[in-house]
Design goal:
Length: 279
Amino acid sequence: MSIPTTTLPSGDELPVVGKGTYELESDAVKTPVETALETGYTHVDTAEGYMNEASLGEVLTDHDRGDIFLTSKVLPKHLNYESVIEAAKSTLADLGTDYLDLYLIHWPNPAISVRETMDAMATLKSQGLVRNVGVSNFDRYQLSAAQHVSSVPIAVNQIEFHPYFQRPDLVEYCRDNDIVIEAAAPLARTDVLDDPTIQELAEKYERTPAQIVLRWAVEKDVVVLPRSKSREHIEENIALFEFELEAADHARIDDLDRDEPVYDDRARSWDDDVWGMAE
């Protein structure tokens, strides 16, 4: 199976379906990723905060590195210049690779200058340790600021995006600035799967509710990163290219927008150690 790709500013091709690994800590990541690679996935998304990079590296040793588009992310507490460099090198060592295809700032951190962070990302790119740089969970304002001070293109913004949280202003900004949108939690962590409209469309197309939702996102030129554990779901989540949604049905899913996130509500505690701002 050949997965369609979208082209990054560097010219690199990013597969539009990837294997998400959030909440697959340590060895729990091995079987799902191995299954995904056997099934035809060529895009794997991880992060230092997922605590699975060393185990993932063990899986990747059995595969041709050049066949896999590999993404990781740096924690917000590591966004000062030296820490970005150190975190990237640690990630590379754990994954057993010489480079990342894409390296993202996992969350913005208001305590650290975004200019300093982007300077470090540019250094990593110039050294060949990462091929593309991007951000994750940046809103329009934060993304605009990062672009303003970055000497390298911001290729990707990985955000919460699904039928209940469609973020049209942010999506439009990314489109206008040649920034690829990746959907974290593309199924709203399963919340949308019981929606009556999704259920009805799944029956109409003889597809699973997850396939309907993922197909809708792909038709919007959004890269999807579903995090499934079972072989059945992993196989289903990549089988998106044998059908298309009719325009009216696509529009019905558009109409489900509630501006309702499942995780990115911005009302968080800054005391968590992940931010590096705990007292």
